[in-house]
Amino acid sequence: MNIFRFAGDLSHVFAIIILLLKIWKTRSCAGISGKSQILFAVVYLTRYLDLFTTYVSLYNSVMKVLFLATSGATVYLMYVKFKATYDHNHDSFRIEFLLIPCALLSLVINHDFTVMEVLWTFSIYLESVAILPQLFLVSKTGEAESITSHYLFALGSYRALYLLNWVYRYMVESHYDLIAIFAGVVQTILYCDFFYLYITKVLKGKKLQLPA
Amino acid sequence: YPGVHVKDEL
């Protein structure tokens, strides 16, 4: 565990808490893509199956359970409890366009052709693109509430910090995983446009509005 | 052996 990895994890947990609090306090999930949230739930479900097979550390297990529980709670709040506030019409990204290519790619490019390894690889690929329905929703409505912007910034920062963690681990421990690194780079690139808008607008107190 | 990956990250 190094500082980049820990900061990344904190940022990830922070993002999830921001999102849950936003939905809970405003009693609304307006502006949030349920499809991205479903994809994240699929990501955690397929990646953290190893909770039952491998023990890494208490920290690791607690975080995995936390991600599974909070993503389940988010999906529940969006599709059951506050269903009426869900922005159904704007959340029109077709997730099969992400699920199918990720599934095929994980069958072809993986470290080992076993069920657990392919599912892990699938979850890594899927996570890298799971935010697309959310970014698509923001681009369709042309704006995002500040709290949603903070959520996206924290969520995007998490993988960017992991990239630094991987650079550090490569140099210090000679540890690297090309699949995770490749997907992490893709994931971070997808946020770049948003990061730019966040820094130039939201941090200056303006609402995130896309240029017409 | 590089095929066996240590999955110690989240």
Please provide a written account of the structure:
The complex is a heterodimer of chains A (212) and B (10). Chain A is mostly helical and 212 residues long. Chain A is built from 8 helices and 2 strands; from the N terminus they run H-H-H-H-H-H-E-H-H-E. Chain A has one domain. Chain A is globular and about 45 Å long. With 10 residues, chain B is mostly loops. The interface between A and B is medium-sized, with 19 and 9 residues. Chain A: Pfam families: ER_lumen_recept (PF00810).
Give the tags:
A: 212 residues; mainly alpha; two-stranded antiparallel sheet; B: 10 residues; ER_ret_rcpt (chain A); transmembrane helix (chain A); transport (chain A); ER-Golgi transport (chain A)
Topology overview:
The complex is a heterodimer of chains A (212) and B (10).
Chain A: H1 3-26, H2 34-47, H3 58-81, H4 96-108, H5 115-129, H6 132-141, E1 143-144, H7 146-173, H8 178-200, E2 208-209
Antiparallel strand pairs in A: 1-2
Helix pairs in contact in A: 1-3, 1-7, 2-3, 2-5, 4-5, 5-8, 7-8
Chain B: no helix or strand
Beta-strand percentage range of chain B: under 5%
The percent range for strand residues of chain A is under 5%
Distinct helical segment count of chain B: 0
Q: Give the distance, in angstroms, between the N- and C-terminal Cα atoms of chain B.
A: 21 Å
Rough shape of chain A? Answer: globular
Q: In terms of structural class, how would the helical and strand content of chain B be classed? A: little secondary structure
Order of secondary-structure elements of chain A: HHHHHHEHHE
Radius of gyration of chain B: 7 Å
| Poorly predicted spans of chain A | none
- Work out the largest interface and the residue count of each chain: A-B, 19 and 9 residues
